[in-house]
């Protein structure tokens, strides 16, 4: 009987509608809001990641801009220095051009003066001197060109001797230093012999004769 009653109650309970306990509409709303919150939270996290990445890129760009500004300042300083150097070079070049023009004018004046003297007083004086020397049986005076060539050769010869002396001085100083060091080492290693050197008496006896011969040679 009990089994029959339970079997008849089960289909009856299955046919009844389920009734939710509590405020189920509030729970649905809460679940919907929670799902929407998760959605917006994910979107917020994604956008935050994008903003952080953009900030990192911005910081890198700003550092690059700062480095470029520093480099630009250095280049501006170098440019100002080079422009100043260029200005000084241009001023020196202008001064050099002015000095060159002045020297060219002075050289032209000296050439004109030399030509005037050569054609005037020099030619007259040389002609008179050559005539008088011819009357005295003497050869004429060398010409102006020969005198100038002689002076030029003498000047070149003196310059060459001066250059040779300047080149020989370091070698001579090196040789003197080497000889001094060598003599010092020999002086410390060798001893000076004692006693009178051999042949000193003979040399003392022959000295007056040598002086007489020298005096005779001078008188001769």
UniProtKB/TrEMBL annotation:
One of its GO terms (cellular component) is nucleus. Residues 191-204 have a biased composition (Basic residues). Residues 58-120 form a coiled coil. It comes from the Eukaryota. The keyword Coiled coil applies. InterPro entries: Znf-C4H2. Residues 160-172 have a biased composition (Basic and acidic residues). Keywords: Coiled coil. Residues 160-220 are annotated as: Disordered. This is Uncharacterized protein. It comes from Russula ochroleuca.
